[in-house]
Specification:
The chain has helices at residues 7-16, 23-29, 37-46, 49-59, 64-70, 103-107, 109-112, 155-172, 186-191, 193-199, 209-213, 245-255, 258-263, 267-273, 302-308, 320-358, 361-374, 376-383, 389-392, 397-407, 419-422, 437-447, 464-506, 519-536, and strands at residues 30-34, 73-79, 84-91, 121-122, 125-126, 134-142, 178-183, 201-202, 222-227, 236-239, 279-286, 289-297. By secondary structure, it is an alpha+beta fold. The strands form 3 sheets. It has a 7-stranded mixed beta sheet, with helices on both faces. Strand 11 and strand 12 form a beta hairpin.
């Protein structure tokens, strides 16, 4: 059982080590932080020769920078202006004498530092010390020389400073229950006694032979121990009493007056007095003074907790098997929901596509074509009176437009509906036709071969024959011009061919290489060429 959890041990140490009233002043005058590499250089400049001699005796010629780099934790002491004043180094092994390092001393110190060799009994109750809950103070220095950027403080203040320093270590490493300090020289004990006996208690050696068998230890070696309760007050837990009201009310009112204004001035006393089998209240006290309150009840509003906090990590306060079933059901519902959402999304996309297709030109023309097929007889009846040539000549543009509007009365062009207001889309195929039904009908007829601007007179029977005749004349002109051009091309081709033939006859033979012929041979060839030419002439 670890030291610090034993009430007997804590009371025994606390009898001779009472808290000082200067703790608040120390907190304001000094600050602590984890050491940095540059702190070692700043301290080296300010260490005097006398301080260096004492440090060498206590900590075996320390190298500050190396200690900071290899320590378990190092804490730098700062003043109110954040100037470096001192350093404390803690390790999980004791400091080692130079030249006397051994594996046993560094790594197996728990074997020789045990209850058989040292007195670890207080009031006949043992406490356990090991590397998991205990650190060694392997270096401590505070610059108290004002000429070297230090601060002149009394010895009592330094003892309180060390206490606050240890408190910082305990807060940084909550599992630490105590700090050990090895001193190998009795002469140095007197130099540091002003804080040594205020913060440490010496462990009595039962078996002095162990000091001879272990390197770095000898007959003048002393081991001191500082338990956690020397620095941090003992916190006791007990059932709440009504007389705790005054202490607790002061704490509650200093933090917030909302609860007092909401529940009344004596709500804490009423809360404590209403304890029963289903409701309890406990308090934490230090030195017989209540410093905290916890109210416990087995009546739990699970719905309120579920609405206020994310309890999924704790299975929503259900049993594991029941929560697993809920998770499986939740996954099924989520999968079903996603499927329904996908189905709705597909249906929506399909409807958007259908609405878009209805508004396109092609779809409107197909609808008009179907409309014309169904009402073909109506159209024939409207214009059958104008079948004769004389009657047809009486038709004018206005009459035709009125007849077309009458026939297209039941046909309406489809425009984008209000559906797209609720479901906006950026589809480029969505079209809005600004033509009237009659203009759209005429545009469709043009698509199927009707002359453009027919309603305005273009392509009518009056100039149809004339245009046909003009087309024939243009075709004949093109044919004559093509025939003439063909004859000219043929004449040019024949003349060019004859010229090429004459040039070939006048050219000398090219298959003979004159460079390889002798002079008589060249003369004979030239004579032959001249004879041939004369013969042709």
């Amino acid at each position: 059982q670890q030291f610090g959890s034993q009430d007997v041990n804590q009371r025994s140490f606390a009898k001779s080590h009472q808290d000082s009233d200067q703790a608040s002043e120390i907190s304001d005058a000094f600050m602590f932080r984890l050491a940095q590499h540059g702190d070692g250089n700043l301290l080296d400049r300010n260490i005097t020769q006398e301080d260096e001699r004492l440090l060498n005796q206590l900590f075996n010629f320390p190298n500050i920078i190396q200690l900071i780099e290899t320590s378990y934790v190092s804490v730098t002491i700062l003043d109110a202006n954040e100037n470096v004043l001192g350093l404390a180094v803690f390790n999980d092994i004791p400091q080692v004498n130079i030249g006397e390092t051994d594996f046993k001393h560094e790594n197996l110190w728990e074997q020789w530092l045990n209850s058989q060799n040292f007195n670890f009994f207080v009031d006949e109750e043992p406490f356990l010390i090991n590397s998991y809950n205990t650190l060694w103070l392997t270096y401590y220095y505070l610059n108290k020389n004002p000429d070297k950027n230090g601060i002149d403080i009394p010895q009592e203040t330094e003892a309180e400073l060390l206490k606050k320093l240890f408190n910082h270590v305990y807060n940084t490493l909550p599992n630490t229950e105590g700090i050990l300090f090895l001193i190998n020289s009795e002469e140095t004990i007197q130099s540091i006694s002003h804080y040594l006996y205020q913060q440490f208690v010496e462990l009595t050696c039962i078996s002095p032979d162990i000091l001879k068998k272990t390197k770095s230890l000898h007959s003048q070696s002393h081991i001191f121990y500082s338990p956690r309760n020397f620095t941090q007050k003992i916190l006791e837990i007990r059932m709440a009493r009504q007389e705790d009201h005054d202490d607790l009310a002061q704490i509650f009112n200093s933090q917030s007056i909302a609860m007092t204004s909401q529940y009344g001035e004596f709500f804490i006393a009423e809360l404590i007095a209403s304890q029963n089998d289903r409701y309890k209240a406990i308090v934490a006290q230090i030195d017989d003074r209540a410093v905290g309150l916890m109210s416990l009840s087995i009546e739990i509003n699970y719905q309120l907790l579920a609405n206020s906090f994310d309890l999924d990590l704790y299975d929503n306060l259900f049993k594991a098997e029941f929560m697993d079933a809920i998770r499986y059901r939740r996954e099924d519902l989520n999968l079903q929901f996603r499927r329904e959402q996908l189905k709705v999304q597909k249906a929506k996309l399909k409807q958007i596509r259908e609405e878009t297709m209805k508004c396109r030109f092609i779809a409107q023309r197909m609808a008009l074509q179907q409309y014309a097929i169904e009402r073909e007889k109506d159209l024939l009846e409207i214009f059958e009176n104008y079948a004769q040539e004389e009657q047809a000549k009486l038709l004018d543009k206005k009459t035709v437009e009125e007849k077309l509007d009458e026939w297209l009365a039941d046909f309406k062009l489809t425009q984008p509906s209000d559906f797209f207001l609720q479901n906006p889309t950026h589809d480029p195929e969505l079209q809005c036709i600004t033509l009237s039904e009659r203009d759209f009908f005429l545009d469709t007829l043009i698509y199927f071969g009707l002359p453009k601007n027919y309603i305005h007179g273009t392509g009518h029977w009056r100039d149809w024959a004339k245009k046909i005749e003009e087309k024939k004349k243009q075709a004949m002109k093109k044919g004559l011009m093509a025939a003439k051009m063909g004859k000219k091309k043929e004449t040019k081709r024949r003349n060019k061919k004859e010229e090429e033939k004459k040039e070939d006859e006048m050219k000398p033979p090219t298959s003979v290489s004159y460079t390889h012929l002798t002079l008589p041979t060249i003369y004979s060839v030239q004579i032959s060429v001249v004879a041939v030419s004369l013969k042709k002439k």
